[in-house]
Amino acid sequence: MKNKHVLLTILLSFFSLAMMAQTFTLQGRVTDSSNNPVELATVAVAKQGRVTMTNLKGEYSIQLHSADSVVVRFSMVGYKTKTRVLRRPKGRQTLIVQLFDDNQIGEVTVVGQKRQTGTTEQLDVKNAQNTPSATGNAVEELIQQQAGVSTHSELSSQYNVRGGSFDENSVYINGVEIYRPFLVRSGQQEGLSIINPDMVKGIGFSTGGFEAKYGDKMSSALDITYKQPKKFEAKVSGSMLGASAYVGFSTKKFSWSNGLRYKTNRYLLGSLDTKGEYKPNFLDYQTYLTYKPNKRWTVEFMGDISDNHYNFTPSDRETNFGTMENVKSFKVYFDGKEKDLFRTYFGTFTITRHFTDKTSLSFIGSAYSTNEQEKYDIQGQYWLTQTETSENLGVGTYMEHARNYLKANVKSLKLAFAHKAKRHDILAGLTYKIEHVDEYSREYEMRDSSGYNIPHTGEDLKMVYSLRAHNKLDANRLEAYIQDTYKFMSSGQHTFFTLNYGVRFSHWNFNRETIFSPRVSLSIVPPFNNNVTFRFATGLYYQAPFFKELRDTTTVEGTTYASLNRKIKSQRSIHFIAAYDYKFKLNDRPYKFTAEAYYKALADIVPYSVNNVKVVYDASQQCSGHSMGVDLKLYGEFVPGTDSWVSLSLMDTKINLNGVSIPMPTDQRYALNLYFTDYFPGTDKWRMSLKLAFADGLPFGPPHKELSSMQFRAPAYKRADIGMSYRLFDREKSEKKKSVFKNVWLGIDCLNLFGINNVNSYYWITDVTNQQYAVPNYLTGRQINARLSVEF
Predict the structure, then answer these.
(1) How far apart are CA 181 and CA 369, in angstroms?
(2) E strand spans, 696-770
(3) Whole-number pLDDT of residue 17
(4) How far apart (Å, rounded) are the C-alpha atoms in residues 518 and 515?
(5) How far, in Å, CA of 110 to CA of 676, rounded?
(6) DSSP, residue by residue, 625-657
(7) Distance, first Cα to last Cα, the chain
């Protein structure tokens, strides 16, 4: 019996040893080229169906089955994939792997490839530069195609985010907030955006729930980082809508990039209903200089000079509108002209002290100056007829006059502190701003319909609209923030968390208001699927008034006077956001699906109306409201080697004004956008880009009326742009490796492919019976644009 127990023990021992021989433990660490840990890197053995991720220290451990050869794959977005083969591994194996940067990732990635663990998504503008464009502002057009973002004018680079006005979007370049012209009233007056796409290195965009480091705005944050060239590089581009040139170079301690752009949309404006002599000329020069005398100090300077002129002498216009059974014709003959000037200067100077590789303190000084003039005297004599019967519905004359001048200067001093620990990324800042705005405005509009001035009392004549304003703003603003990004894993080392929390403080001496904004977001990568990310965010956001929100109007004997309301409060919004990200592969191509649901509780909202791109506030009252919706987006390689996406947004936004719930002027109930790229079969020389937009029309009503009168809704915005690009030269695939040219692209675009008459705004006319007609102002028609791009 004893011998049987001994035999059984020996057999069990041999069996255990055999089982142990069949499995082994692989452990180790993954680092980058600087020996820094690479967190969330994927360690996978495909044949065994086993996968794990590295922790915050770059360490990993995985149980595997032994075999003659075990192939282990190490991968991480932004790094070159590395493969290691283990021969008959046993027991405990240690493998330290170093991953190197994938320098080609920017050439094939537009958006969504890097894991998003916060509320800010990283976008790539490179592939957007060869797409069909009416504005020439590649960054803003990329933003306009994102889920939750809307625009209804291809002539404008402005955009609305989740029901907010354009003024509710903050924009930063290299950590400094930038401003846009105040008096621009139509998209065709807009010149070049201050963001030069040729100089952009990184784009961070958040549609809500953004971090405390971003300023006091309610809707979105756009964070632009300019690049510091590592070697000589240059690019020259030209099209029928403008031209640009960029050059950058560097030494061991010095880098300098320069961008010059010219834009004239005269050719595009020729497709509008209003004919005449368009003379738009927009010129912009930017420079970015970096000097690093040693590893402890960095000196940076960025400057921008923008000179925009819009001159227009209208001659005539004919617009047909209505339905198939009821078509009306609106004809106008013009006298007069419009002459506008928008000249801006912007500069920043930064000195950074790097105490260690992970701790720094920066001193940033910036200045912004704008000189704006809007002058026009335009008289129009019009006929409104019923096309089917040739009945004359109205004959009249109108005259519009403006002498608007505005000068603004904003200077700021900022201290920015940054520190990185093992699991914490701490940022803090203190900013002091000096603001000065000087406005002088005179506007009026006269209407004479069928021999009668409107409005009229029978005894005197009055303008239908008259405005006078002379305001000065001198104010100081103090802002401060502190935030921390804390990364940690659960006790079982299976769930990865990213927690961002912070608070923002601001005080403005003009209205003596102090605001306090706590903000928090949490990202979770669950253990059951490393390709899934859950994101949650909430926070208190304020729209601190600057100038336009302050303008309060009172009407005395038919004349409206604008003054500044010192009692106005900051608009307030509480964000609640829940998001789901899922990365997957289909036909061995990467994709990412994102779904976000949001609710914004609005309070102290200043009502406003929108005419074309001009936002006019009514600072005499403030109200409450809400904005809620769902944003869905799928993007990835629909075609191998290219990136495309499709997005769907559903939204409802309303305010309670005088006890009545009414839609906001930006209430776009649905929007569908598609961006698709493809190469011709068998070659990568031919590239096609297609942009489709289908969005709900916005509410509108008669001008100079209460917001509650916005009871109509414009037709849906529908547009298709297609572009074809041909690569004439590619140095990487050419036998002439020492050629001066790097890439040469030749392209042709068809803008508004289907020639759809989209409505931009309405001009209202009145007949003698006081009946009003809304005559649509259509946007651009079908146009062909040719372009050439040469990279050195």
Answers:
(1) 10
(2) 699-700, 712-713, 717-730, 743-751, 759-766
(3) 46
(4) 10
(5) 11
(6) EEEEEEEEEEEE-SSTT--EEEEEEEEEEEEEE
(7) 88
Query: What is the rounded CA–CA span in Å between residue 306 and residue 181?
Result: 11
Closest residue by Cα to residue 343 from 380, 374, 369, 316: 369
CA 578 to chain centroid, in Å, comes to 20
Which pTM was predicted?
A: 0.85
Structure token pair of residue 547: 């100038």
- Consecutive 10-residue averages of pLDDT for the chain (792 residues): 50 46 85 82 83 82 87 82 87 88 42 68 76 87 91 90 92 92 87 91 92 93 93 93 94 94 89 90 96 94 95 92 83 93 95 93 96 94 85 84 95 96 92 96 82 60 82 95 92 82 95 94 89 94 89 81 89 96 86 95 90 83 92 88 89 90 92 90 84 92 73 90 90 74 91 91 75 86 92 90
Beta bridge partners of 329: 320, 385
Residue 682 amino acid letter? G
Cα 627 vs. chain centroid, distance in angstroms?
19
Structure tokens at 200: 């952009």
**517-544 per-residue burial string, b: 16 or more CB within 10 A, e: under 16:** bebbbbbbbeeeebeebebebbbbbbbb
pLDDT at 15: 43
pLDDT value at residue 218: 92
- In this structure, are residues 513 and 546 in contact, taking their beta carbons and an 8 Å threshold? no
Rg (CA), the chain: 30
Q: How is residue 753 written in tokens?
A: 């492919």
pLDDT at residue 110, as a whole number: 36
429 Cβ partners below 8 Å, 6+ apart?
213, 414, 415, 416, 417, 479, 480, 481, 482
49: left (phi over 0), alpha (psi -120 to 50) or beta: left
CA dist 109 and 126 (Å) reads: 8
Among residues 436, 358, 443, the alpha carbon closest in space to that of 401 is found at: 443
| Best CA proximity match to 744, nearest among 729, 725, 759 | 729
Tokens of 576: 């609640």
- Rounded CA gap, 211 and 503, in Å? 9
Cis (ω within 30 of 0) for the bond into 590? no
Bridge-partner residues for 539, per DSSP?
A: 519, 575
* Residues 84/108, Cβ–Cβ less than 8 Å: no
Cβ atoms of 100 and 80 closer than 8 Å: yes
Q: Say which amino acid occupies 667.
A: D
Place of tokens 């846009």: 180
pLDDT of residue 767: 65
pLDDT of residue 123: 85
Domains defined for the chain, CATH in brackets: 20-98 (2.60.40.10), 121-791 (2.40.170.20)
Residue 16 sits at φ, ψ, to 5 deg, of: -65, -40
Dmax (CA) for the chain in angstroms is 129
Q: How far apart, in whole angstroms, are the C-alpha atoms of residue 775 and residue 759?
A: 10
Q: What's the pLDDT at 18? A: 46
**Contact present, 496 and 40 (Cβ < 8 Å):** yes
* Cβ within 8 Å of residue 471, ≥6 positions away: 437, 438, 439, 551, 562, 563, 564
Name which of 714, 789, 712 is nearest 758 in CA terms. 714
